[in-house]
């Protein structure tokens, strides 16, 4: 029988599984994109090298694929997507229209902001939505996510590994953040996105998306909402209540229905993860999400 380390990159008993299996991740993902967009050079790197402005939902699904593979996939799957991302970033350049300088997309400064904006959003939204993580578990999550940062080319020691370190990093970066034309357009896209071709059948229900986009926006830090100024302020207690209701609703969906939101390749990877974990003695009758319950782990781990 294979060892647990050979089966998954982050095991079910990790803080990462607690956060990444929570359906509030969809809110956290969009919030993360909105936060990332406030870094002028990082935003222009996306704008100049992708079709984000035409398919922001596709960008979110590709991010979900990367996060899924380095969380639930095999070490080989995680290494493969890490190499793929690093190879793509290595070839890309971004031109700063303010200075005329050309920068590498894999500049550690840009990669670090993108990583921190993403993982801080996942963690903040999940905890605010009701996932009961202690401060110690939250710190553990950020330490575990250093491994995810390494897959895109960052050095572990350069990545915040606790809530205090993350707060200090954001405080340091904030003076360099601003709302560029690209950032403003990004928020508008995320509040009213263009659906990918395979989801066009959902177009009649598109107006129902706006409350979701607004929820993502309102979970941003107050300083970020003040910078954007896109929507009028509402009581944050209302935002928290909406987030808890969204989380409760999505967490009640059967896994096979929820997973339809992912790309086919992501669904195939998740199917492989369930098979590997089942063969290792985990009870996967309730899917991967069921493995947040220690009673479904092998006896040696649950003890």
Automatic annotation (TrEMBL):
Pfam families: MPAB_Lcp_cat (PF09995). InterPro entries: MPAB/Lcp_cat_dom. One of its GO terms (molecular function) is oxidoreductase activity. Residues 17-233 form the ER-bound oxygenase mpaB/mpaB'/Rubber oxygenase catalytic domain. It comes from the Bacteria. This is ER-bound oxygenase mpaB/mpaB'/Rubber oxygenase catalytic domain-containing protein. It comes from Nonomuraea cavernae.
């Amino acid at each position: 029988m294979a060892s647990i380390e050979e089966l998954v990159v982050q095991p079910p008993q990790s803080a990462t599984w607690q956060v990444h299996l929570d359906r509030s991740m969809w809110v956290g993902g969009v919030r993360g994109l909105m936060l990332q967009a406030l870094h002028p050079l990082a935003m222009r790197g996306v704008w100049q090298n992708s079709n984000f402005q035409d398919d922001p939902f596709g960008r979110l699904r590709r991010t979900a694929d990367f996060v899924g593979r380095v969380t639930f996939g095999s070490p080989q799957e995680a290494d493969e997507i890490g190499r793929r991302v690093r190879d793509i970033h290595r070839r890309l350049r971004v031109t700063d229209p303010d200075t005329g300088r050309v920068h590498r997309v894999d500049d550690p400064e840009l990669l670090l902001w993108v990583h921190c904006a993403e993982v801080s959003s996942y963690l903040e939204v999940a905890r605010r939505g009701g996932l009961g993580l202690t401060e110690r578990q939250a710190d553990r999550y950020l330490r575990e996510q250093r491994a995810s940062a390494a897959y895109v080319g960052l050095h572990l020691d350069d990545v915040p590994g606790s809530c205090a370190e993350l707060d200090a990093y954001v405080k340091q970066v904030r003076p360099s953040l601003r709302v560029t034309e690209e950032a403003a357009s990004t928020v508008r896209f995320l509040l009213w996105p263009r659906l990918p071709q395979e989801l066009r059948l959902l177009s009649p229900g598109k107006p129902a998306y706006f409350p979701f986009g607004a929820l993502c926006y309102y979970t941003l830090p107050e300083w970020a909402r003040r910078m954007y100024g896109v929507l009028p302020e509402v009581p944050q207690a209302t935002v928290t209540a909406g987030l808890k209701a969204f989380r409760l609703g999505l967490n009640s969906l059967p896994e096979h229905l929820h997973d339809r939101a992912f790309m086919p390749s992501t669904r195939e990877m998740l199917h492989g993860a369930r098979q590997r974990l089942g063969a290792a003695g985990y009870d996967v009758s309730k899917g991967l999400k069921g493995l947040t319950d220690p009673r479904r782990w092998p006896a040696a781990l649950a003890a």
